[in-house]
Write a structure and sequence with these properties.
Structural class: alpha+beta
Shape: globular
Largest sheet: 3 strands, mixed
Helix content: 10-25%
Distance between the termini: 57 Å
Strand content: 15-25%
Amino acid sequence: MAHVKRTTVIVAGAMIALTACAPAGYNGANTGAAEPVAVAAAEPTGDAEPEAAATPGAPATDKAAAPAGDVQLTDQLVGKKLPRMGKVVTDQDGWVLYRFDKDSADPPQSNCVDKCAQVWPPALTDGNPRLQGVSDDKVGTVTRQDGTRQITIGGWPVYRYIGDKKPGQWKGQGVGGTWFVVDPNGKKNLTCLPKGTPKAVAPPASGTSSGGGSNYSY
């Protein structure tokens, strides 16, 4: 019996190590360091995560760059839990959504425009997005300066991040000290904060690839 108890303790410790946030292994400004986190995160969960991976899996190769430049409507919001990060909201393709501290929730207002909106594409809608795991009393819209309608959660406008290279990543967490993963209630998810203050990737330049510039604080 003593041997069985020791084994149980070791297994429990291993589970904690797998699910704990490892800030040293995650750097929002370092695309290479973040990749293993995303891969490792998919392994511990055998029920919910495969479904999440399957949804964006087929179009991932086609849509990985879609949030970077193309105007894309968000027709679904999915509240879910991701390993290490916890509660998040994704769009229909599995991209994690963020909120911006320089915006306002009461009244809702987006202050991310121009180059900022190229790096952080707003989650736009032309109607009511389908909801899964997000209460409809938390979801609304705000009219942006250009007349488009942006989805709000808990009053906060929400965005994607072009630094995320595939669905399920959260490289935008803590960028500039103002960008954070949003949870289904519109609150900041402060899990897995990176060390230091990562900076945003550069806006995409026409005819050139983005070089991951670190001079942008929005």
